[in-house]
Design a protein that fits this description.
This protein is an all-alpha fold. It has a domain of about 220 residues. Helix content is about 80%, strand content about 0%. It contains 20 helices and two strands. A two-stranded antiparallel sheet has the order 1-2. Helix 4 packs antiparallel against helix 19, helix 7 packs across helix 8 and helix 17 runs antiparallel to helix 18. It is globular.
Length: about 500
């Protein structure tokens, strides 16, 4: 058993990668789903075991190929990425029962096995980005997850999914190019690709080559910001979420942008912040206005959207703004708010998009004007939507409130009371667009499209309810979410120069 435990870091990536390869040889959609569900279910077991090891014993260093770091590739797991591994693997596992009927409804039978192959490859890439301690290896996994994401989006039944996928491909390629240029500049000045080794050498390199070091940060920041859809680099996200298959939308919304945010945290705090004075990097100077603009502009765009998927897509851009605002605040409470919102938003938005997918499954439409009375014909589904929507607003007793509480405390601790006011004010805009959906669902006459609709089968309904109720549970019991996030923030702040 101890020999297996020692290989957990490698298995976290190898299991879904081998699962994807084997899935490519399956022809029947149901068998491909069963295999993908089984493979996915193993990943949170490994992730929780790694989190337990890190919590009790400290950072794990796993060497690949018999070459010790920094020469060889290292998987390095600390509390931050163990937390993200748990998030990505657990949310994916909760969603998998939902996929069977949703994917069968939206994707032709001969393409379903290919869909699950791409899903497992995307999961492999996301887990790989999170677990690796090597900058170039992170780029490789970034490309694996991105290329498979393009295919997942393109498989949407609406032909506009192809345009959305192509748009994402162009933007994603630019982002990946910027990232690899940044990694190349760091390699030139430090001679290393290992994150920990770069951090150890960067202070001396910055004294000799200050411009390449700062240029590297600029390229990395822009490249990652394109991936995480930081305003105004979010242009790919609304269409990608709106026209992708429902399961793909929920999966990507809950995991992909969160992993990109993790990568930004890793580079900003564990690489540059360890070696150089964090204030001199001026990251906060850039992130403050962009985050606040995302919170307000994206939320206002959501208010005027008639397509519910696009509405939630713009909402995601706004919520990413809250997370990056916590990074900009850069104190204990602010970073805790950023990390815990990374967790909470995955639950909230995953539940919301799954609920919309169930509505598509029963009604064939996602246009707000066609869904009058859907709350009465699909009571459990829309009740889950309302619960997750309340959490998105930050209503007390929900997970969203915990996130915004820490962000407000962080802003006040930093002496930025106007920022605290803006956090509260922007949250009220969510009340408008979520409230508009509730008004249509419960207070308008039953529309023709939803007249014969009913709640989806249990395999689809249970994951929706689990994520919705989790967004309440983690608003009450915050030990796993805010407790771990607080320790992560303490470690990140404590490591700054």
């Amino acid at each position: 058993m101890s020999a297996l435990t020692a290989q957990l870091a490698g298995l976290q990536v190898v299991v879904p990668l081998l699962g994807a390869i084997l899935s490519a040889f399956i022809r029947r959609g149901t068998l491909a789903w069963a295999w993908a569900a089984l493979v996915t279910a193993t990943t949170p077991v490994i992730a929780f075991a790694l989190l337990f090891q890190v919590w009790t014993r400290g950072t794990i260093s796993y060497h690949l190929g018999g070459w010790p770091p920094p020469i060889g590739i290292e998987y390095r797991i600390d509390l931050l990425n163990a937390f993200v591994l748990v998030l990505v693997s657990l949310v994916s596992t909760i969603m998998m029962p939902y996929a069977r009927r949703s994917v069968a409804y939206e994707i032709d039978g001969d393409k379903q096995a290919w869909f699950y192959t791409m899903y497992l490859l995307c999961l492999t890439g996301l887990l790989g980005i999170t677990i690796t301690g090597d900058a170039f290896n992170a780029f490789v996994f970034l490309e694996i997850s991105s290329l498979s994401s393009y295919v997942l989006i393109a498989m949407g039944r609406d032909r506009r999914a192809l345009v959305a996928s192509y748009q994402y491909l162009i933007v994603g390629t630019i982002g990946a190019t910027f990232y690899v240029i940044g990694v190349g500049l760091l390699y030139l000045v430090t001679g290393s690709l290992n994150f920990a080794d770069i951090a150890a050498r960067l202070g001396e390199a910055a004294g000799a080559y200050p411009r390449p070091v700062l240029a590297g940060l600029a390229f990395l920041f822009v490249g990652i910001s394109l991936k995480l859809a930081l305003f105004p680099l979010h242009v790919w996200l609304p269409n990608a979420y709106a026209y992708a298959p429902s399961f793909a939308t929920a999966f990507l919304a809950a995991t992909a942008t969160k992993v990109a945010i993790y990568l930004l945290l890793r580079i900003a705090f564990s690489v540059y912040g360890v070696a150089l004075d964090f204030g001199s990097l001026h990251l906060s100077t850039v992130l403050y206005p962009l985050s606040i603009a995302a919170m307000f502009i994206a939320s206002l765009l959501a208010v005027y959207e008639r397509n519910l998927k696009r509405m939630l897509a713009y909402s995601s851009v706004a919520q990413i703004g809250y997370i990056t605002l916590g990074i900009a605040i850069a104190n204990q409470a602010g970073l805790t708010g950023a990390v815990v919102h990374l967790f909470n938003h995955a639950l909230i938005k995953g539940g919301l998009f799954l609920a919309l997918g169930a509505i598509v499954y029963r009604t064939g439409t996602i246009k707000l004007d066609d869904l009058g009375g859907v709350g009465r014909t699909m009571p459990l589904t829309f009740a889950a939507f309302v619960i997750a929507g309340l959490s998105l607003m930050g209503v007390p007793g929900t997970a969203g409130f915990i996130s915004k509480y820490y962000l407000v405390v962080g802003a006040l601790d930093a002496g930025k009371w106007p920022v605290a006011f803006l956090i509260v004010a922007s949250s009220l805009i969510a009340l408008v667009y979520i409230g508009r959906a509730i008004e249509v669902a419960y207070f308008r006459p039953v529309a023709e499209a939803v007249a014969h609709a009913k709640d989806p089968p249990l395999m689809m309904l249970v994951p929706i309810l689990i994520l919705a109720l989790a967004s309440v549970y983690f608003g009450i019991d915050t030990e796993l979410s805010a407790g771990v996030a607080s320790r992560v923030a303490e470690a990140l702040i404590g490591g700054l120069k």
